[in-house]
């Protein structure tokens, strides 16, 4: 019980030290498999080229004890996504191909909405946030997404603060 109280106090301390109100960016809950952390939907801007109609929307789910992170993305584009993998390029230039699972596709006024799940090893996901430069996600050559430098710094700081909280709860 004392350990739980100390963890709550440390979590509160981290939240007050973080820039802004970090508590609005994620939710945590106890699940059967461990502590569940859900990072609410965020936007990653589209790159100048490609046929994406809007920024990439994505949310992240992690359950303590797992070695993978689930990233669910929403891509609005002129064509339906038919790929089986995405390429994630770290800010340091390392590329990795990650399998995808299409959750659903739907027709919208100017194209398609594609809801896609990516499962990435936890170690690789955390490495993406260690780079000073932003990572990119490519759904084939037509749909590429990446934060700009200013957005990246803010997003990186927020996510790293959330991971400090997750680490305290393991």
If you had to describe this structure to a student in words, what would you say it looks like?
The protein has 170 residues and is an alpha+beta fold. Helices cover 25% and strands 42% of the residues. It has three helices and nine strands; from the N terminus they run αβββββββαββα. It has helices at 2-17, 122-128, 149-168, and strands at residues 26-31, 34-44, 56-63, 68-77, 85-89, 95-108, 111-121, 136-138, 144-146. A nine-stranded antiparallel sheet has the order 1-2-3-4-7-6-5-8-9. A hairpin with a 2-residue loop joins strand 6 (95-108) and strand 7 (111-121). Helix 1 (2-17) packs antiparallel against helix 3 (149-168). It is globular and about 45 Å long.
User: For this entry, what is the oligomeric state of its chains?
Assistant: single chain
Shape: globular
Q: Roughly how many Å is the radius of gyration? A: 17 Å
Please describe the biggest sheet, giving its number of strands, its sense, and whether it closes into a barrel. Answer: 9 strands, antiparallel
Number of helices, where a helix is a run of at least 4 consecutive DSSP H or I residues: 3
Q: What's the N-to-C terminus distance?
A: 15 Å
Helical coverage, percent range: 25-40%
- Which segments are poorly predicted (pLDDT under 50) over 5 or more consecutive residues? 3-10, 12-19
Please provide the count of β strands.
Answer: 9
Q: What percentage of the residues does DSSP assign to strands (E)?
A: 35-45%
Q: Please identify the structural class as seen in this structure.
A: alpha+beta
């Amino acid at each position: 019980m004392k350990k739980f109280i100390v963890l709550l106090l440390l979590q509160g301390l981290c939240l007050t030290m973080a820039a802004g109100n970090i508590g609005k960016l994620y939710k945590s809950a106890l699940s059967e498999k461990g502590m569940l952390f859900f990072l609410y939907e965020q936007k990653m801007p589209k790159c100048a080229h490609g046929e994406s109609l809007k920024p990439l929307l994505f949310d992240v789910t992690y359950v303590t004890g797992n070695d993978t992170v689930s990233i669910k993305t929403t891509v609005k584009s002129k064509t339906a996504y038919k790929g089986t993998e995405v390429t994630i390029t770290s800010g340091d230039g390392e590329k990795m191909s990650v399998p995808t699972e299409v959750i659903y596709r739907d027709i919208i006024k100017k194209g398609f909405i594609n809801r896609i799940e990516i499962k990435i090893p936890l170690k690789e996901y955390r490495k993406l946030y260690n780079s000073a430069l932003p990572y990119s996600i490519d759904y084939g050559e037509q749909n590429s997404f990446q934060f700009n430098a200013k957005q990246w710094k803010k997003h990186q700081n927020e996510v790293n603060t959330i991971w400090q909280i997750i680490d305290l709860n393991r």
